[in-house]
Amino acid sequence: QLQLVESGGGLVQPGDSLRLSCASSGRTLIFGWFRQAPGKEREFVAAHTTGSRTYADSVKGRFTISRDNTKNTVYLQMNDLKPEDTAVYYCAASQSPGPTLISRGYNYWGQGTQVTVSS
Q: Smallest Cα–Cα separation from 27: which of 55, 50, 46?
């Protein structure tokens, strides 16, 4: 059973940057980030498997997912933030291979961290 603890959300202005962190209590094969805006469904943001990274089209070129396996931690560097990036961001993890772009591919979820982009 993994536990995921997220940090790094906050209120920023358009064009600013934020870095989210998610620490896992154990070894993780796949890390993912999802987000959910008010009134919308949870959507995929980025995933990091061993050797590959995948991004949603809406964040390509602005967001970067990375991981530190020595710390069982995944990061989401978010640059050039836009108001439409406002959402609760969730870290997700899986210890076995599976789909990375959809929620059911992950067994473990963090509590979520709020990111608000507003002028």
A: 50
Average pLDDT over residues 29-39: 96
Distance CA 91, CA 33 (A): 5
Which helix or strand (DSSP H or E) is residue 67 part of?
strand 63-68
What digits encode the pLDDT tens for the residues 70-80?
Answer: 999 999 999 99
Q: How far apart are CA 14 and CA 118, in angstroms?
A: 6
Q: Could you tell me which of 100, 48, 104 has the C-alpha nearest to residue 77?
A: 48
78, two tokens: 């978010």
User: Rounded distance, CA 61 to CA 5, Å?
Assistant: 26
Burial of 83 (0-12, 13-18, 19+ CB in 10 A): exposed
